[in-house]
Write a structure and sequence with these properties.
The complex is a heterodimer of chains A (about 300) and B (about 375). Chain A is built from 15 helices and no strands. The N terminus of chain A is likely disordered. In chain B, α6 links the parallel β7 and β8. In chain B, α2 crosses α4 and α2 runs parallel beside α5. The C terminus of chain B is likely disordered. Classes of the chains: A mainly alpha (about 300), B alpha+beta (about 375). At the A-B interface, α10 and α11 of A face β6 of B.
Chain lengths: ~300, ~375
C-alpha cells in the first residue's frame, strides 16, 4: 500500500472513529467568530438587562441611581403585574395543549389523506408564512362585533353575537385561538416529518400481531415512535407560546381593562410607553429565568421517557 | 389444523397484475416455499394471505373458512418480516408479548393506564409464562430486557420468530427472513427454521428468491414468474423434471446448458456437432424444422477421449476448481456449456485444450420453440 493510499484511507474514515485520536476541535480559534457574536448580541445584552433592572433608569434619562432589588419587590407587590402574570399563565395553559394536540391530530389526518395530503399540508401551513401583524387586522374584521363574518354567521343560526375582542371573559381565548391558528401549521409539518419516518412495516406487524384498530396502532406504534418529534414540538410550542406579543399589541393592547394584558406586553409598555427601563428590564430578567428553568426541566423530564431509535 | 387453499387469486395494482389467477392447495403442516425473482408476485401473495393487501378477485380459504375479507388481526396468522419489524421502543420481552397483549380487553392494552387496572398483574404473569418457554426454545432468554437496537441481526431474527410463535398460530408466513443475515448465519438459521417447523407441526409458507433456501427447506416449491405459477412440486421434481424452460433455467447452480438441436433426414446436430441418430432415451421428438433445444445439467456429462463418436468436442475456455468439484467451461461450435466434473478427473486440464464430453441422454430435457417441455410420448400426440 502506498503512502497516498494510506492518506485516502484516513480521509475516508468516519468522524466518530477519529475522535479518540484527535481533539474534538481542530483549532479552538475557529469558534471565536460565532462566540464573539453570541457575546455581543446575547450575553452582553442579557447582563446589561440585569444591570439596568437594578437601577431606576428611564429611557433617555441622563442620571440614574442604583436601587438594588427594589424594582423586583415593587413588581411582586403590584396588582397589575399579578394580573399580567395570571393572564400569561392562563393563555399558555390554553395555547400549549391546544396547538400541540391540534397539530398532532391534523398531522395524523393529513398523513392518512393520501392523495390530498399535499393540498391540506399547504392549506394548514399558509398562516405560518403570513405576517401576523397583517393577519391581526384581518382577524379584527372577521371578529368585528357588528360587521364581522363570525358574528353574522352566529346570528344567522340564531345565536347571540359575541364581542370576541372586547369581552373580558373571552378576549384571552380569542388571542389564544389566533395564535394557535398561526402556528399550528408549523407544528403539523414537524409532526408529519416524524410520522413519515415511522416504517410502514411496524404498522403491518402490529396488524398481523392482532392490533385491532387505530387506537392500538396509535398507542403502540405511532405515539412511541413519535417520541423525539413530540419532545421537540413540545419545547418549541412552549417557547413560541410564551413569545406571543404582536396579536395583543395590534388587536387589544392588553385591554379591555387589562383582560388580555400579558407579560411581554407589560414589559413593552413599561419600557417603550412609560420609558421605565428599570422595570422593563426586571420583567425581562424574570421572564428569561423562568423560560430557562422551564426548558431545562422539560428536557430532563422528557428526555428520560423518549425513545430515540 | 391449517390447510390453506387459494382459489383463482388475482391482485392488480392499477393495470398491472401482481398475482394472476393463482390457485394452490396447501396441506396442514406443509412447508411450502414461494420462489421467484424479485417482482414475481411472491411477496404480494404472502401479503394477500396475511391480509395486508386485499384481493382483486378470487378467494383464500383457511380450514374451510374464507378469510380474504377479514382484517389481518382476525386471521390468526403469524408473519416474520424481512426487516423483522420489531418495535424499537419495546424490550425484547415486550416485543414477544405483544401479540398476547393484543388479545386482552381494550383497557388492559393501554400503556401506562393498564397498570392501574385490577387484571393487569394476572395478565402479565400469564403472558410471561407463555413468553418464557418460547424465549428458551430460541435461546434468547438472556436478551429479554434489551431493546432491539442492542441486538445483532441474528438475535433480532430470533426475536421476530419468537414473536410469531408465541400465540401458537397454525400458519406461519415468512417473507425472506434470512436475507439480512450474513452467509454463514444464513445456513445455520436455515436448519433451525426447518427444525422449528418439525417441532411446531404448523404450516409454513416461506418466500425467498434464493433457490438453495427453497431446495433445502421445503416440502414443496411453488416457482412463480410474473404473478403466475410456473410449477409446483418437491425440490427434486423441479430439478429433475421441470415443466418448462423457465423452471429448468431458474433451478440449478450452475445453470442448465441449453443446446440447439437440428435434424436433417435421420441426421441430428447438437450445438453444431453431428451426433447421428438420436439415442432412444430421448424418446420421440417432433418433426424436423421445429426449433428444439436440449437441456443438459452440468453434471449430465462425462469426460471422454477425443474422437469418441458419441461425444461433443470443444475447447476449454475456463477451468474453475472449487475443491469438491470442478466447473469446466467448454466452447462448442455453437455456444458454451458448463460441465461439472470430479476434481481428480479434471486434474491437469487447462484453458485452450481440446476436451470431449459425452452427454448422459437419460437426463436430457427437451424443449420446443416456446420453451415448453416436450415429454417422451407427448411429442407423438402433438405431431399426430
Amino acid at each position: 500500500m502506498s503512502a497516498s493510499d494510506h492518506l485516502a484511507l484516513a480521509a475516508s474514515r468516519p468522524a466518530a472513529a477519529r475522535h479518540a485520536a484527535e481533539p474534538l476541535v481542530a483549532n479552538p480559534g475557529y469558534l471565536l467568530p460565532a462566540f464573539a457574536l453570541l457575546i455581543v448580541f446575547f450575553l452582553l445584552p442579557a447582563v446589561a438587562t440585569f444591570a439596568i433592572s437594578l437601577t431606576d433608569w428611564t429611557l433617555g434619562g441622563r442620571a440614574f441611581s442604583f436601587v438594588g432589588l427594589q424594582t423586583y419587590r415593587d413588581l411582586m407587590g403590584s396588582a397589575d403585574f399579578h394580573i399580567s402574570l395570571a393572564n400569561t399563565l392562563k393563555l399558555n395553559l390554553f395555547v400549549i395543549p391546544a396547538s400541540f394536540i391540534t397539530a398532532l391530530l391534523l398531522a395524523l389526518a393529513i398523513h392518512n389523506a393520501a392523495k390530498a395530503a399535499p393540498l391540506w399540508q399547504t392549506v394548514y401551513f399558509l398562516p405560518v408564512t403570513t405576517t401576523l401583524v397583517a393577519m391581526a387586522f384581518v382577524w379584527q374584521w372577521v371578529l368585528h362585533p357588528e360587521i364581522g363574518i363570525v358574528v353574522w354567521l352566529l346570528t344567522r343560526i340564531g345565536l347571540q353575537p359575541v364581542n370576541w375582542l372586547n369581552d373580558p371573559d373571552i378576549v384571552l381565548y380569542t388571542i389564544g385561538f389566533i395564535s394557535v391558528w398561526q402556528l399550528v401549521g408549523y407544528y403539523t409539518v414537524l409532526f408529519l416529518a416524524g410520522l413519515l419516518s415511522i416504517p410502514r412495516t411496524l404498522y403491518e406487524a402490529a396488524e398481523v400481531d392482532g392490533a385491532r384498530g387505530s387506537l392500538d396502532r396509535f398507542l403502540h406504534v405511532t405515539w412511541p415512535m413519535l417520541g423525539p418529534t413530540g419532545l421537540f414540538v413540545f419545547i418549541i410550542t412552549v417557547i413560541k407560546s410564551f413569545q406571543i406579543f404582536d396579536v395583543v399589541r395590534v388587536l387589544t393592547r392588553g385591554g379591555p381593562n387589562k383582560a388580555s394584558e400579558i407579560i411581554l406586553h407589560t414589559m413593552y409598555q413599561e419600557g417603550f410607553v412609560f420609558f421605565r427601563m428599570g422595570r422593563a428590564s426586571a420583567i425581562a430578567t424574570m421572564f428569561f429565568l423562568v423560560m430557562l428553568a422551564l426548558t431545562l426541566w422539560q428536557m430532563r423530564l422528557l428526555d428520560r421517557r423518549v425513545h430515540y431509535g | 389444523m391449517a390447510a390453506l387453499s387459494i382459489r383463482h387469486a388475482h391482485k392488480f395494482f392499477g393495470p398491472t397484475a401482481a398475482v394472476h389467477d393463482f390457485s394452490l392447495e396447501i396441506e396442514d403442516g406443509e412447508f411450502v416455499t414461494l420462489l421467484g425473482a424479485s417482482g414475481c408476485g411472491k411477496s404480494t401473495l404472502l401479503r394477500l394471505i396475511a391480509g395486508l393487501e386485499t384481493l382483486t378477485a378470487g378467494e383464500i380459504v383457511l380450514d374451510g373458512r374464507p378469510i380474504h375479507q377479514l382484517a389481518p388481526s382476525q386471521r390468526n396468522i403469524a408473519m416474520v418480516f424481512q426487516s423483522y419489524a420489531l418495535y424499537p421502543h419495546k424490550t425484547v420481552a415486550e416485543n414477544i408479548a405483544f401479540p398476547l397483549l393484543m388479545q386482552a380487553p381494550l383497557p388492559l392494552r393501554i400503556p401506562g393506564l393498564r397498570r392501574l387496572l385490577p387484571g393487569c398483574r394476572a395478565l402479565d404473569r400469564d403472558i410471561a409464562e407463555q413468553v418464557d418457554p418460547v424465549a428458551r426454545m430460541l435461546q434468547i432468554e438472556h436478551l429479554l430486557s434489551r431493546k432491539p437496537a442492542q441486538l445483532s441481526g441474528g438475535q433480532r431474527q430470533r426475536v421476530a420468530l419468537a414473536r410469531a410463535m408465541v400465540r401458537q398460530p397454525h400458519l406461519f408466513l415468512m417473507d425472506e427472513p434470512l436475507s439480512n443475515l450474513d452467509a454463514k448465519l444464513r445456513t445455520s438459521t436455515r436448519a433451525e427454521i426447518v427444525d422449528l417447523h418439525r417441532r411446531l407441526k404448523a404450516t409454513f409458507i416461506y418466500v425467498t428468491h434464493d433457490q438453495s433456501e427453497a431446495m433445502t427447506m421445503s416440502d414443496r416449491i411453488v416457482l412463480m414468474h410474473e404473478g403466475q405459477i410456473q410449477q409446483v412440486g418437491t425440490p427434486l421434481e423441479l430439478y429433475e423434471n421441470p415443466c418448462n424452460l423457465f423452471v429448468a433455467e431458474f433451478i440449478g447452480q450452475p445453470k442448465i446448458n441449453l443446446l440447439p438441436l437440428r435434424r436433417a433426414d435421420a441426421q441430428h446436430a447438437l450445438a453444431g456437432h453431428a451426433i447421428g441418430s438420436l439415442p432412444a432415451a430421448l424418446g420421440d421428438i417432433p418433426p424436423a424444422g421445429a426449433n428444439l433445444r436440449i437441456g443438459l445439467r452440468p453434471e449430465a456429462f462425462t469426460l471422454s477421449e477425443p474422437g469418441d463418436p458419441q461425444s461433443l468436442t470443444g475447447r476449454i475456455h475456463l477451468v474453475e476448481a472449487l475443491g469438491n468439484e470442478t466447473h469446466i467451461r467448454l466452447t462448442l461450435a455453437e455456444g458454451e456449456i458448463i460441465v461439472r466434473a470430479q476434481p481428480e478427473s479434471a486434474r491437469g486440464l487447462k484453458a485452450g485444450q481440446l476436451l470431449a464430453v459425452r452427454p448422459d441422454w437419460r437426463s436430457a430435457l427437451l424443449f420446443d420453440a416456446n420453451g415448453a417441455r416436450v415429454q417422451a410420448g407427448v411429442a407423438q400426440q402433438a405431431a399426430a
